[in-house]
Task: inverse folding
């Protein structure tokens, strides 16, 4: 068997010498069979401060404003649920929260971070409400705000904000989800009448899965290929642009030429009315074009401040970044809710009697139960901190775009995509695990977990499919800030990647000063161990870099090949590119977590967070030990020791589990569920004060 | 990069010499962009024959009897869905299929294999129907059939079979799910009146999650602690027994002393009316006791043919074995359905244009998509074969119990538990992956995947929680057929395990003659490779054995310790015990798969199945490479080569994907879903005959 000391062995397996800094003393913990009531309040408050982040005030006011009505109702029909959510949306509009996100000149508060934080917290309640809010204010309102000129913003935004005008963000088509650049819907300028003709030329061009399209939407922000006549009258395609197209009259009837269809029942989110929209040569005035980045004058002449079609397209897609950040944040909140429910249940539900005491053993006292939940609790902390970081970055970008050179902006975009993919995928697994950890009770809708799982499921697909987004992270690492990227199609990307130098990547992933500081402090590499923070960062960054470097080498093969061969090379490396993207997100997320820990001033909290960080890394090592061994990053002694240390730390953390989830600061009414109160669970048997204490 | 040859390197990394048998030539495959219509019919038929197994005739007649009405309806309210399923249940009763499973003397056909196979196929449709059928005929009917005397069987079974009497299987309690031996409900004999008094003494003793309890059930098979007065009039507890207790009158009202509650909405299975039942000193006549294994005479004297309480209890639980086998089989069928939907979609849905042809690339042509789906297709084949094997074993047991010594019976029980845990957990992950692989379309209820996922979710929990069942497999491996086990509580198990000798385990897991034959044929161990069948078996069996041996060594520490310390030792090894159980199930499942392949007479099919077997093993190696490296079972060169070979084989199999899922022989109406027909997908562009052919 392995011991704690083994974890501290160096990578080459030699016995450790005297470390430069002695490992921090770890607190001793009581057993899980301590109190199942509220945990250590002081510690929970200190931890909460770290998780609350920059927008702690917004969190507080939102938390106070939340009532049980924001929870997902059970057993309503689809139409009833839609009606209920629309009502909740109105209440949300009245709070003034949605306004936060719009520019001051548009009647908002210019507080992107605030609105993202507030919407994140809707993830503790009914995700239908969160999604409908995101569709209305984030996507529909966001498109007008980001792409419209002053006149159009003045005309529509007040009503969009107040909810007098509900709208759609009509981008996805039945045949084109991820490949937005090749949407089929057309908007052709008719010089005779000065109008655009919006059309759905093929069945696959029908707009699909569009929120607000089945029932409530009146106006749609429609993405279409913008076509103007050139000087010979031939069609000239300027790429995808966005136009505002009315789709319903005030009685809710489709307007002439528009056909909407209700998607009906989905896997979840029954409160959101998703539908399809088809356009049969619908005419809209020239002013319908949101022309901030591309305008058409009365003569049909096209002009844009951005020359390249590709660059313009990616600029216009900027609207999606907020959406991605928002979706990641809300699904993180949902996962924390699920974990808090499962942890609380694990502390009061007992199974099998203890051989000595004869009392039932709380589920969370079992090793397997600890391993199922505690690494997820650790990751929940890390993701929450990373999510705070990306929200802060986006907020700064929106406030001071000039601070952002192309490189910083692209990095932000890649991380927004990456964290959305990482968190939403993980959240669904986590909610599933939480539901399983609650047994039969977990399957009853009244205990919330199944609805949460069903609703959050599609978060892995919308706002960018997770595989496509993670691939985007991998590609971005490869092309490392090349400004040409915007114009490059898949083949060119491959070809371009060949010239990529590892140095650039290195520069990028190692840019953080914190990282440098921590790594510099490690004076003797041989004596570092898996519980050393600098070594942990090094381990994760090194994995990510190695994956990028080796994938670049593979792609180099495609150089000079024709398109077919180049695609083959790219495709056979696809799993490798995705692995690079995932590894990078692990290291980036961990870096954000460590930064948040460093900034924490409460000593007990910092210690506890340090253990969570250890669990994060040991869990990565445990799950990917094949890689670390294959690439001689760790010896088999060390990987075995890592697993043993992970087990021990999970047991320790389980002793503080209630405190750890209390720090999520989820409104208490969320936990008013039968499984935490009914006859299936026992009151805590050993509720002596201090049994769960730190000392 | 690695090449196919690397896979053939020996474990010590030396260059291979001349293998005794040359590796079989592998067929060349066309590209995925071949026909998306029906695959290779002859090959599909040959493969289907392997999957259909012993009860091919039952499969055929059931398949022919299935109509679109068995599919899960969309958008019904809970009450409407319950009504619909009850109607379908009546139709099912009329087919005579449920009768198959009962003994001939009880009006059945004594064909356990037949009924299990037929119920498995309901897994292609509405799982609510499958579960309600399982509750009514499998559990309720099964309890009467297995535990009742001739009189009681004659009295109730005809109505239970015909559906004139709907019933419940009331075992689980709110506070006791997995620890059935410690149920709290009591049935106390009152000598004065000659009745049993059935009582729910505490809130946690309430029967919970019981199918048919909320609405349709009239009579419940209630599991309770059987208490009789001893000669001094003191209560004497004989352990858990089963009694038939009427719960509702013919108008559906609760009978006096009985309180039923509706669980209402669940995460899925809305067509099944689960509820709670509480008994307030309900009196039933002495004949209500199902007394085959334990009877009480008019004087209140208890007698049983099985002396030990523990052994008697496990005998009575025999009813659960069929349930476990049935649940595993149906969720396997659901997973195959999900895979077939996702594969078909992956062949017709295109994303991004090919750089050369300009045509959209089918999803299944992408490496990542292949890696998501093809290893699951391979495992679906393996599980189907293993499921056929356990059904055949159970069928033989029910027909010829005398053929089964204690050891064989216990092995069957462990495998029934293990396959239930393995398949249901995997099925849920697989349905999730299939839904993700279908993007936005996958989330629309009309395309069936989300309902399937929601319904199958609880299969991981009911009929034995998967963690508890897998632990049971691990413990069974440890205690290896000790007849004492039945009486041992957790501490004793631990203590007993200390005396366990590795030889016994070895004998057990290596019992198969096929395995012996294949391993014997490998004359020179050094020259074996990862594509050699004997070596593959050896690899999987060796992993399982090593895990069992090392866990036994750990448990030895508990020897002589008190209960508290012994539990600690057991608990800290829990993840290890589970890993042993899972590894054993992998090797057992693989063995069943290989036996089925050996029995296949069609050469093309055998070749294809061989590739699926390779993918099964390479996927195990890829996912668990950390273990194989840590324990020096494989070198890093070999694990890397295994991953590369897995990638290549997945691409090859993707070229035959349609054929592979056609062989599942799922009724075609299941595929009449919008996403396979609407504008989002293209007709196959290169449907030239033979493009997908074997040659």
Result:
């Amino acid at each position: 068997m392995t011991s704690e000391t083994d974890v501290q062995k160096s990578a080459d397996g030699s016995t450790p010498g005297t470390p430069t800094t002695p490992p921090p003393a770890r607190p001793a913990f009581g057993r899980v069979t301590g109190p199942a009531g509220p945990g250590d309040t002081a510690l929970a408050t200190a931890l909460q401060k770290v998780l609350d982040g920059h927008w702690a005030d917004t969190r507080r006011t939102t938390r106070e404003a939340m009532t049980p009505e924001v929870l997902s109702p059970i057993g309503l029909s689809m139409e009833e649920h839609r009606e209920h959510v629309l009502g909740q949306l109105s209440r949300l509009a009245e709070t003034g929260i949605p306004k936060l996100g719009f520019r001051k000149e548009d009647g908002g508060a210019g507080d992107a971070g605030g609105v993202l934080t507030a919407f994140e917290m809707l993830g503790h309640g009914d995700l239908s409400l969160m999604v409908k809010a995101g569709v209305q204010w984030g996507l529909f309102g966001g498109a007008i705000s980001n792409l419209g000129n002053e006149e159009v913003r003045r005309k529509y935004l007040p009503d969009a904000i107040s909810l007098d005008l509900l709208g759609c963000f009509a981008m996805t088509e039945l045949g084109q989800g991820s490949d937005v650049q090749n949407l089929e819907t057309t908007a052709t300028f008719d010089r005779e009448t000065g109008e655009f003709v919006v059309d759905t030329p093929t069945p696959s061009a029908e707009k699909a899965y569009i929120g607000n399209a089945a029932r409530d939407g009146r106006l749609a922000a429609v993405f279409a290929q913008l076509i103007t006549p050139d000087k010979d009258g031939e069609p000239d395609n300027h790429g995808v642009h966005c136009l505002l197209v009315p789709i319903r009259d005030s009685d809710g009837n489709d307007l002439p030429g528009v056909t909407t269809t209700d998607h009906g029942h989905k896997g979840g989110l029954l409160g959101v009315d998703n539908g399809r929209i088809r356009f049969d040569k619908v005419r809209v005035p020239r002013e319908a074009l949101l022309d901030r980045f591309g305008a058409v004058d009365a003569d049909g002449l096209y002009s844009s401040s951005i020359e390249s079609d590709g660059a313009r397209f990616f600029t216009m897609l900027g609207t999606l970044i907020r959406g991605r950040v928002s979706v990641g944040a809300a699904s993180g909140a949902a996962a924390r809710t699920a974990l808090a429910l499962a942890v609380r249940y694990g502390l009061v539900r007992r199974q099998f009697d203890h051989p000595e005491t004869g009392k039932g053993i709380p589920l969370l006292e079992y090793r397997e139960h600890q391993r199922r939940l505690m690494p997820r609790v650790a990751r929940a902390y890390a993701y929450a901190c990373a999510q705070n970081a990306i929200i802060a970055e986006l907020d700064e970008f929106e406030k001071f775009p000039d601070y952002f050179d192309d490189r910083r902006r692209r990095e932000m975009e890649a991380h927004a995509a990456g964290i959305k993919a990482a968190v939403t995928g993980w959240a669904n697994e986590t909610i599933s695990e939480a539901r399983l950890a609650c047994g039969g009770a977990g399957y009853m809708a009244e205990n919330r977990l199944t609805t949460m799982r069903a609703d959050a499921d599609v978060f892995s697909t919308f706002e960018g499919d997770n595989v496509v987004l993670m691939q985007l992270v991998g590609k971005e690492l490869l092309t490392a800030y090349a400004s040409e990227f915007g114009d490059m199609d898949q083949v060119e990307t491959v070809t371009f990647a060949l010239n990529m130098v590892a140095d650039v990547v290195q520069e990028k992933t190692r840019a953080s000063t914190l990282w440098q500081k921590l790594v510099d402090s490690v004076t003797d590499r041989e004596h570092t161990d898996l519980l050393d923070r600098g070594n942990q960062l090094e381990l994760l960054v090194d994995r990510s870099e190695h994956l990028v470097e080796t994938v670049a080498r593979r792609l180099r093969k495609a150089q000079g090949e024709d398109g077919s061969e180049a695609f083959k090379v790219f495709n056979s490396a696809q799993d490798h590119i995705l692995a690079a993207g995932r590894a990078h997100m692990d290291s980036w997320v961990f870096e954000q977590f460590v930064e948040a820990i460093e900034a924490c001033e409460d000593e007990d909290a910092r210690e506890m967070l340090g253990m969570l960080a250890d669990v994060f890394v040991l869990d990565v090592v445990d799950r990917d030990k094949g890689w670390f061994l294959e690439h001689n990053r760790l010896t088999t002694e060390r990987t075995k020791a890592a697993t043993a240390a992970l087990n021990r730390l999970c047991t320790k953390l389980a002793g503080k589990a209630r405190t750890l989830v209390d720090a999520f600061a989820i409104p208490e009414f969320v936990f008013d569920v039968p499984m935490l109160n009914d006859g299936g669970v026992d009151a805590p048997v050993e509720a002596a004060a201090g049994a769960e204490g730190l000392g």
